[in-house]
Amino acid sequence: MNAKMEAARKAVEYVEDGMVLGLGSGSTINILLEKLGDRVQEGLNIKGVSSSVKTEKLARGHGIEVTDFSQVSRLDLAIDGADEVDPNFQLLKGGGGSLLREKIVDVAADQFIVVADESKQVEQLGAFPLPVEVVPFGWEQTQARIEAFGCEAVLRDSGGKPFVTDNGLYILDCHFGKIDRPEWLHNQLKSLVGVVETGLFLDMTDLVIVGRDDGADVLDKHS
Ligand SMILES: O=C(CO)[C@H](O)[C@H](O)COP(=O)(O)O
C-alpha cells in the first residue's frame, strides 16, 4: 500500500492551480484523491471530471469540485491507475471495471499520467486478464467471437450476478496469458459487434509514476 501512496504523492506534485483534471479510478487514485483533497484545503483551486461514480463520490467527500464533462471543453491533466504497464508505456486497464469512462477521460487530456506500484510493471501485457466492456444483449455471442482470438472470456461476476458497469454494460475478462500484438488485438476486438471498448490503452501516456515502498520513480518515455 505504501508504494501506491508514494506514487500518488508524487503525482499530486504535477497538479497546478486552475487545472481541470481527469480523475481516474482504482485504489491508487483513491489515495491520490485524499492527497489532492489536502491541497484543496490548503487553497488549491481545481476541478475534476470523474471516470466513475465511485471516484466522483470520493472526490466530493475530499472537498474536490467535480464537474460534468459537458461543462468543460478540455482537460489539462488526467491521472489514472493501471493493471499492467509494459516497457513501451502501453497499458492494460479496467480491473476496477471503469475502463470505458477512463479511456474517454484519459484521451481528452493534454497530459495523461499513470500512477502504479512496481508490481504493475511487466515485460509483456496479458498476464492480467484483459477487461472488455460489452453490450449485455447477446453477450454470449460476443463472448464466443472474442474467444476465437485464443482466450477464455469470463463474464465478470458481482455476488452471483453479472457485474454491471457505470454505463450499464458487462465486462468479459479475457485470459490471453500474453498479448503479442496489442494494437492488432485491440483493433480486432473493437471491430466485433457487441464490443464497446477494450482495456488496452495504447500510445496514450508518456509519463508513468512507479511507486516503491521508499519513494517513486518518474518514467518519461522521451528521456
Ligand atoms: O483500470 C482501473 C479501474 O478500471 C484501475 O486504474 C486499475 O485497475 C488499477 O487499480 P489499482 O490502483 O487499484 O491497482
Automatic annotation (TrEMBL):
<feature type="binding site">
    <location>
        <begin position="25"/>
        <end position="28"/>
    </location>
    <ligand>
        <name>substrate</name>
    </ligand>
</feature>
<dbReference type="InterPro" id="IPR020672">
    <property type="entry name" value="Ribose5P_isomerase_typA_subgr"/>
</dbReference>
<keyword id="KW-0413">Isomerase</keyword>
<comment type="similarity">
    <text>Belongs to the ribose 5-phosphate isomerase family.</text>
</comment>
<feature type="active site" description="Proton acceptor">
    <location>
        <position position="102"/>
    </location>
</feature>
<dbReference type="InterPro" id="IPR037171">
    <property type="entry name" value="NagB/RpiA_transferase-like"/>
</dbReference>
<dbReference type="GO" id="GO:0004751">
    <property type="term" value="F:ribose-5-phosphate isomerase activity"/>
</dbReference>
<protein>
    <recommendedName>
        <fullName>Ribose-5-phosphate isomerase A</fullName>
        <ecNumber>5.3.1.6</ecNumber>
    </recommendedName>
</protein>
<comment type="function">
    <text>Catalyzes the reversible conversion of ribose-5-phosphate to ribulose 5-phosphate.</text>
</comment>
<feature type="binding site">
    <location>
        <position position="120"/>
    </location>
    <ligand>
        <name>substrate</name>
    </ligand>
</feature>
<feature type="binding site">
    <location>
        <begin position="93"/>
        <end position="96"/>
    </location>
    <ligand>
        <name>substrate</name>
    </ligand>
</feature>
<comment type="subunit">
    <text>Homodimer.</text>
</comment>
<dbReference type="InterPro" id="IPR004788">
    <property type="entry name" value="Ribose5P_isomerase_type_A"/>
</dbReference>
<comment type="pathway">
    <text>Carbohydrate degradation; pentose phosphate pathway; D-ribose 5-phosphate from D-ribulose 5-phosphate (non-oxidative stage): step 1/1.</text>
</comment>
<feature type="binding site">
    <location>
        <begin position="80"/>
        <end position="83"/>
    </location>
    <ligand>
        <name>substrate</name>
    </ligand>
</feature>
<dbReference type="Pfam" id="PF06026">
    <property type="entry name" value="Rib_5-P_isom_A"/>
</dbReference>
